[in-house]
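Email to the structure team, subject: beta-lactamase model.

Hi all, the expression group asked for a predicted structure before they design truncation constructs. Nothing fancy, just the tokens so they can compare against earlier work. One-line instruction: predict beta-lactamase, return tokens.
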Amino acid sequence: MMRRPLFRLCTLLLLATACASTRERGTAATPLMQSEYSVAEDIHVRQLAPGVWLHTTLAGADFDNYPANGLLIEDGEQSLLVDMGWNTRHAEQLMTWARDTLHRPVRAAVVTHFHVDRTGGVPALTARGIPVYGLEATARLAKEHGHPVPPSIVSESQKLGPVEVYFPGAGHAPDNIVVWHRDSGVLFGGCFVKDGAAKDLGNLSDADVAAWPASLERTRQRFPDMRVVVPGHGQAGGPELLTHTQSLLR
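Reply from the structure team: attached below.
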């Protein structure tokens, strides 16, 4: 008479243990329990939206440990990197985290302009045969300035897996692109968009200040459904970051 209840109890305990184990490590069917990770002392990752992760990497002493943002976007059982840190170590550790923790290895990457805070990790990906995309202008300018060169060319308006890349016109740099993830409403503005706490436009050595306002307006018209806007540096916000950048330009 006692065998059936005992059998049921053992079965339930086994199922509960299995479910708990699955929740802890995360699978394609169940999301990871954590929303923030310290990948290394100078690499932090946090979830912005389902399938969208913000990575922030710190520069070395030569750039005063300045933080730079990028994205890692899930694409089925793989993922896409948008910018990849200041150097090859950053890129390598981000790829390792995507493979071992997110369980979605990086299959491709895109750089949003030619400066080293965007292109520094390119060699780590190309060494593994992972395609890295950028505008033709980005490849040319990176080569001219002695920065790592993205070897695969993307057009000024193109779908790339789960995202759309778009060149709105010059601004922070002559080749700055934005990256749109429609499913989440996240727009990666990169250094083309300033964060809400910014008091000035930052590095203007390659900027086209005259063209920048119209480029921002084209971005606003192109992506009216944006909900989250990620600047190249500083805290993410909403569409008001475009307005704030326009006010700084004025």
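Helices lie at 3-25, 88-100, 116-119, 122-126, 136-144, 212-222, 240-249. DSSP finds seven helices and 13 strands in the chain. Ping us if the truncation boundaries need rechecking.
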